[in-house]
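ERR on first pass: missing label on line 2. Operator R.T. fixed the label and resubmitted. Corrected input:
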Amino acid sequence: MSCREIRDCQLNDETDFFAIRFFDRDTTNLAQPVMLSRVAIEGTGLNAIGIDTTLTTLGLFVNDFDTVTTYFFESDLGLDTLTVSYQSEYFIFFEDCDPAQRFFDFKVIKHTFDSLIVNDTILNRRATDNVQIFLD
Amino acid sequence: MYRYFWISFIFVLPVVSSTVARQNIPDPPSGTVAIEKEKPSLKPTAVRLGANAFRLGRTVFDKDYNSWDITGDIDFRNYFIEVTYGREKNTLSTETFDYENSGSFFRIGPEVNFTKSREEANAFIFGLKYVLGTYDEQFQFDREDEIFGSASFDLNNSALKANWFEINVGVKGKIWQQLYLGFYFRYKFNNSVNGDREFATFQIPGFGPERRRNIVGFDYYVFWRIPFKKSPKILNKR
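pass 2 clean. output:
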């Protein structure tokens, strides 16, 4: 027998997506709006955003069944690619919840952007941006 | 480092408690009955063996749970050494997954008895325990993703080892002859799991949910005491 705890599946703050934020390379503390005509996820043929969307922050799903996912970004600046890798682990959050998955050791292993840094290696709701991309 | 502190503390406790427990036993009044005076001694007087009625009861009424544990203590004046061995199996089937674990645990540690009831061997105890466990887990589920497709998973964790510490408070009371009943509140903390895992442990047999850093458990025991010698002999009678 043990003490009861609050059992709410919504308390699980693990996510299966990561956040990208774009910055001006010269003024690195200011987020820079970027117009993207298309963001494709390799192997799916899906567009991750609406056509010709201007944004500063973008959330992208990772492939749950793999440890690597590649994305293609089409914009006025040209075509860029971003390949990320990660580890994951399945777990039971509570008995009443669906099987959950946590992602960690998140890395960018290949990209064609001017410059970027990985700001947070864990995917969860507390991460404001996992990847910061700096554009000229 | 923290773990070594607790292990040291557990095994130093009997030395400290034996010093505290020393007391003078007054001479019997000259008169009607004189009983052989017992010298304070660390020599054990009995072992007390018990079965966990709480686990057995839950096993009867909960089809997803199967567990038992047996315990034994041996006295050294005002303190005991308690040893427990138990097994536990949990199954959990929901609409979205099936989970099962099974394993065993071994608990050992000293207990201090705060009662003066040596003849009846009743006990109100405070104890520190170290617990070692080993267990297996299975986790099966289907996963569907709108973007990346679907897959079935059959994940296994084999021969994992766990350990944790406990602070115990409990009572053992004589009911009839050598029959005793008792219960424990066990504050379990500082759990650690070792071994290669295909998924995160959900429940550690004997501890509970692995994600909990600490947890309070309750156990209810039925004991039978086995004395090592007969009652003190009467020397003279008026």
